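In the lab's daily routine, each protein ends up as an entry in a very long ledger. A line of letters takes care of the sequence, but it says nothing directly about the fold. The three-dimensional part falls to structure tokens, numbers that each stand for a local backbone shape. The outcome of that step, for a single protein, is printed below.
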Amino acid sequence: IKIGQILSAEKVPETDKLLKLMVDFGEEEKRQIISGISAYFLDPQNLVGKKCAFVTNLESRTIRGLTSNGMILAVSGEADEKIFFSLLETGADVLPGSAVK
């Protein structure tokens, strides 16, 4: 699990749930991650700049013809008859690529 900074976020055309994220993990190449979190972000641009926890040691998967190289971590559930959803975010001073311990 590493911290990645979201550089761009956009809806995947012809899907209701998918977002395409480009994420900086402090590596030479940025990673593309496809995630089913679109319902929680009416404007995907609100994700740009966020530093979140990602699983980075998964095998690549093809989702709707797009390669996904990781998975963003989030918490969701229901409390007091209300549904909640939250990405696992860090403070501004954490560097991309930092390992979660």
In short: The first strand starts at residue 2 and ends at 11.
